[in-house]
Amino acid sequence: MQLEYEAYETMAIRQMHIICAEARKRWPIIALACAHRVGIVPIGHESVIVAASSVHRADALLACHFIIDEIKASVPIWKKEIYADGEVWKENAEFFINNSTSRRSGSALHANKELDKRADTEKNDLSHET
Amino acid sequence: MDAEFSQTEGTCGRVKVLFFARAREIAGVSETSLGIDGAESSKTIKDCIDLLTKQFPGLEEIMSCIVVALNQEYADQSSLVKSGDELALIPPISGG
């Protein structure tokens, strides 16, 4: 089985910038980067990377979590599984959740009430740790 | 070859349409364009979708789960399109 990624590149990059800007609004992040591969990605190899730095680790970890969830919900990238006897386009559940709440209009970020609730809960949990 | 709301000469008055993933496989092309200049009234994204499904009937089966982007921003199908716009048909995504 092979994995192949396709992207609407200009919009994907634009959307990733929007997501990173939103992460910076929510958490005090020092540096942030994310990248996604396109084309064939060998099995077992990473297809996406998100890197964040912050004074306290909770903020970087929450920002990474948020960014990955948002990438899965709104960045126009598609994965195809290629088998000897056929091909299957995969579909992220996050895309359907996002589109049923926002009903195909406006920014995907407005629809993430569940993520906001979870982020607040996790922030409280992680702050007890440090 | 490209679909039209009205007959128009030249390259202006057109909306570029991009197809991705399953939509691209069904349409058989990664891009096309729709002529909108000179049409009797303003056209919406929905009007463009209707024209596209006439030109590429196979798209009908996936239209219920397609979202659209207008000039690289997600848009509602009631949004108006204008000459020079870029429309993209976005099937369910699977990055990350």
From TrEMBL, chain A:
<dbReference type="InterPro" id="IPR036563">
    <property type="entry name" value="MoaE_sf"/>
</dbReference>
<protein>
    <recommendedName>
        <fullName>Molybdopterin synthase catalytic subunit</fullName>
    </recommendedName>
</protein>
<feature type="region of interest" description="Disordered">
    <location>
        <begin position="104"/>
        <end position="130"/>
    </location>
</feature>
<feature type="compositionally biased region" description="Basic and acidic residues">
    <location>
        <begin position="111"/>
        <end position="130"/>
    </location>
</feature>
<dbReference type="GO" id="GO:0006777">
    <property type="term" value="P:Mo-molybdopterin cofactor biosynthetic process"/>
</dbReference>
<dbReference type="Pfam" id="PF02391">
    <property type="entry name" value="MoaE"/>
</dbReference>
<dbReference type="InterPro" id="IPR003448">
    <property type="entry name" value="Mopterin_biosynth_MoaE"/>
</dbReference>
From TrEMBL, chain B:
<dbReference type="InterPro" id="IPR016155">
    <property type="entry name" value="Mopterin_synth/thiamin_S_b"/>
</dbReference>
<keyword id="KW-0501">Molybdenum cofactor biosynthesis</keyword>
<dbReference type="GO" id="GO:1990133">
    <property type="term" value="C:molybdopterin adenylyltransferase complex"/>
</dbReference>
<comment type="pathway">
    <text>Cofactor biosynthesis; molybdopterin biosynthesis.</text>
</comment>
<keyword id="KW-0597">Phosphoprotein</keyword>
<comment type="function">
    <text>Acts as a sulfur carrier required for molybdopterin biosynthesis. Component of the molybdopterin synthase complex that catalyzes the conversion of precursor Z into molybdopterin by mediating the incorporation of 2 sulfur atoms into precursor Z to generate a dithiolene group. In the complex, serves as sulfur donor by being thiocarboxylated (-COSH) at its C-terminus by MOCS3. After interaction with MOCS2B, the sulfur is then transferred to precursor Z to form molybdopterin.</text>
</comment>
<comment type="subunit">
    <text>Heterotetramer; composed of 2 small (MOCS2A) and 2 large (MOCS2B) subunits.</text>
</comment>
<feature type="modified residue" description="Glycyl adenylate; alternate">
    <location>
        <position position="96"/>
    </location>
</feature>
<comment type="similarity">
    <text>Belongs to the MoaD family. MOCS2A subfamily.</text>
</comment>
<dbReference type="GO" id="GO:1990140">
    <property type="term" value="C:molybdopterin synthase complex"/>
</dbReference>
<dbReference type="InterPro" id="IPR012675">
    <property type="entry name" value="Beta-grasp_dom_sf"/>
</dbReference>
<protein>
    <recommendedName>
        <fullName>Molybdopterin synthase sulfur carrier subunit</fullName>
    </recommendedName>
</protein>
<dbReference type="InterPro" id="IPR028887">
    <property type="entry name" value="MOCS2A_euk"/>
</dbReference>
<keyword id="KW-0547">Nucleotide-binding</keyword>
<dbReference type="GO" id="GO:0000166">
    <property type="term" value="F:nucleotide binding"/>
</dbReference>
<feature type="modified residue" description="1-thioglycine; alternate">
    <location>
        <position position="96"/>
    </location>
</feature>
<dbReference type="GO" id="GO:0006777">
    <property type="term" value="P:Mo-molybdopterin cofactor biosynthetic process"/>
</dbReference>
<dbReference type="GO" id="GO:0030366">
    <property type="term" value="F:molybdopterin synthase activity"/>
</dbReference>
<dbReference type="InterPro" id="IPR044672">
    <property type="entry name" value="MOCS2A"/>
</dbReference>
<dbReference type="InterPro" id="IPR003749">
    <property type="entry name" value="ThiS/MoaD-like"/>
</dbReference>
<keyword id="KW-0963">Cytoplasm</keyword>
<dbReference type="Pfam" id="PF02597">
    <property type="entry name" value="ThiS"/>
</dbReference>
